[in-house]
Amino acid sequence: MTIRSDRDHGQRYRPRMSCLKKVEATVVQMQDPSTGVKGTNQKLNVTTIPHAITGQDIGAWITKNMNMDNDEAQAFGTMLVAFGYIYPLQDHKKLVLGPDGSLYRFQTPYFWPVQKWKAEDTDYAIYLAKRNIRKKGMLDAYEQEEYNKLHKWMNHKWDFIVMQAKEQYHVGKARQKADRVVFDCQERAYWIVHMPPPQTHSAMDYGLDRHIDPNVEEKKTYDYYRRINIYTQQAIMRSRVKSTVSLGANPWQTDDDSYWELNMPDVEIPTKMRVERWSFSFYELLIDPRGRADFKVFLKKEFSGENLAFWEAAEELKWGTAASMSEKAEHIFKTFLAPGAPRWINIDGRTMGLTVKGLEHPHRYVLDGAQTHIFMLMKKDTFYRYLKSPVYKEIQKKAISPAPHDFSEAQLQQNMRNRRPSIDPIITWQKEQEEKAKAAAAAGPVDIKKLMASKLDRK
After folding, report:
1. Using one digit for the tens of pLDDT, what is the confidence trace for 279-299?
2. How many CA atoms, within 13 angstroms, populate the side-chain half-sphere of residue 398?
3. Which of 18, 92, 129, 186 shows the smallest number of beta carbons within 10 Å?
């Protein structure tokens, strides 16, 4: 069976639906117990993986049953791996069929491309949050970068994402270890195919619809234009409500400011969900001002607050003004790096030498090496001691769970009628400028001639 594409009006080859069905029929045939690729139980690390197959066996089956030579069989097998029909068990990021004893498994049909399950950012964020919980913050570099981007972009619904991730994590823990490892490998293989690491070739460059011939133009019938008009009318009539970080209710529906107070950076008693988020990773703890303040209390009791102080000083240097850069660099050197410094930090000699040499001509990123060293030191040691300390357990006890507002339809209508529009920021800025000008004029000397001239002009 040879898989080919059709040429249409001199354009490039485009895969057809029949081609995709032939591929899937081949994959089903490969999984046949009597005539397919023979799978065995293989030990991976300390877990036995059922129905594992080798790349050598896959290539031999394709060569024998599809009348291909070794090179064609290797290319076809690599295509099956690249499209996610077969996934590697050892080197997850290498979507290539190895002609050796490398272990693979057949992907479950739920994750096949024909399902047209769109790889949405919300699902990817839930997957990364679940993986972050399971790995205790030790994500790969590209996954950590994507996690931070999605956290910043989806901050308005991050609590929902974390709850979904925790629920899936607890459901996965209830499975047997072999089933849990297999499902984790299947899910990870799906996201590596659809959200590949940097500098990795992806067969999904143009999305899932590419495999269903997306170049075919949709016939613009009367029904097509009717649907466009209905959508446009609904979009015009839709009310534009700002999204916000809330817990269980929409603060724009009420004048109660308790939701804003609970989510303030320096709130005295945080919510339980906010405190739980600190335990997901050290990064989550540091980016929350309230969590960082609690971490400082713990470090103060252990007499080891110089590491966090140095990290914060490096952040100030990185994001501060250019005019104060030299002054801040000198202060950091005298406080943390100079011999006999009052808050001297313990870093290796090579990093210390490079940092001190770079401070001779300071720039924003001169402390990156030392800052990363201190960050990893706190992450691997101090962070886990903090999670087990009485300081964290005490804040967990004090944390509150706010009850969601339960408004009736009449109350919502009443709130809507009583709501007053806010002042435009431009008007507020103009008033501030006028007040500053008046204050500056009142503080300066009064010119009697100009004052009398302005009065005469008014008359």
Report:
1. 988 989 999 999 999 999 999
2. 11
3. 18
Q: Would you give the end-to-end CA distance of the chain in angstroms?
A: 99
H, E, C per residue of 226-262:
HHHHHHHHHHHHCCCCCCCCCCCCCHHHCCCCHHHHH
- Two tokens, residue 121: 């950012």
pTM above 0.85, yes or no: no
pLDDT tens for 188-244 read 888 878 787 776 666 665 444 444 444 456 567 877 787 788 778 777 766 554 444
pLDDT at 393: 92
Q: How far apart are CA 317 and CA 332, in angstroms?
A: 9
Interaxial angle between packed helices 390-398 and 289-302, expressed in degrees from 0 to 180 and rounded to the nearest 10: 140
Find out whether 286 and 292 touch, Cβ atoms under 8 Å: yes
Backbone angles phi, psi at 14, to 5 degrees: -130, 130
CA distances from 252 to 1, 44, 421 (A): 61, 53, 11
Neighbours of 246 (CB within 10 A): 20
Residue 214 confidence (pLDDT): 45
Cα–Cα dist 441/451, whole Å: 12
User: Which residue from 304, 330, 299, 336 is spatially nearest to 317, judged by alpha carbons?
Assistant: 330
The 3-state DSSP class for residue 337 equals helix
The half-sphere exposure of 277 on its side-chain side, counting CA atoms within 13 A, is 24
In DSSP notation, 56-100 reads: HHHHHHHHHHTT--HHHHHHHHHHHHHTTSEEESS-TT--S--SS
Report the mean per-residue pLDDT for the chain: 77
How far is the C-alpha of 337 from the C-alpha of 330, rounded, in Å?
Answer: 10
pLDDT, tens only, 358-410: 888 888 888 888 999 999 989 988 999 999 999 999 999 998 888 776 767 77
406: tokens are 């339960």
Give mean pLDDT, residues 302-312.
89
What is the share, in percent, of the chain residues with pLDDT greater than 90?
10
Length of the chain, please? 459
Q: Are 272 and 399 in contact (CB under 8 A)?
A: yes
Which tokens hold the place of 378? 């706190």
Q: Which residue has the higher pLDDT, 351 or 452?
A: 351
Residue 97 CA to residue 79 CA, distance in Å, equals 8
One-letter identity of residue 292: R
**pLDDT by residue (tens digit) across 103-114?**
888 888 777 776
Non-local CB neighbours of 18 within 8 Å, separated by 6+ positions: none
Find out whether 383 and 345 touch, Cβ atoms under 8 Å.
no
Spatial separation of the C-alpha atoms in residues 336 and 352, rounded to whole Å: 11
